[in-house]
Amino acid sequence: MIKLFLGGFPLNITELELVMLVSPHGEVDTIKIVRDKKTGKCKGYAFLEMKDKEGADRAMEALDGSFMGDRQLSVKITIDKPVPVKKPSFKPNNSYSSSPASYVKVGRPGEDTKKKRPRKQF
């Protein structure tokens, strides 16, 4: 499966219309038009999965830079970002890191603290 980014299309387009636009170049497996979470309105771009790289290349070559009405289409093959691996904060022998604490307690000093403070002598 090859994932394509398709952007710049009219905001009122449907999934079916996008499939009809791309399918002459190769078999479309899935399509997802990106929409605003609150309003549900189309953001003007989508992600498609094509069955093979040849179809994705043909779609990109034919559609990238073409116009749909007064809007210019952008078609790119996407590359999935690798998922970052988090390093554990402890050492392999299960002892915790000896890095200093990353917090500071803010508040009024207790009564004991006032008594222990040295007084200035002049």
Automatic annotation (TrEMBL):
SUPFAM superfamilies, per database record: RNA-binding domain, RBD
Transmembrane segments: none
Gene Ontology molecular function: mRNA binding
InterPro entries for the chain: Euk_RNA-bind_prot, Nucleotide-bd_a/b_plait_sf, RBD_domain_sf, RRM_dom
Source organism, top-level taxon: Bacteria
One Pfam family matching this protein: RRM_1
PANTHER family, per database record: OS02G0815200 PROTEIN (PTHR48025), RRM DOMAIN-CONTAINING PROTEIN (PTHR48025:SF1)
Protein name: RNA recognition motif-containing protein
Species name: Mucilaginibacter gotjawali
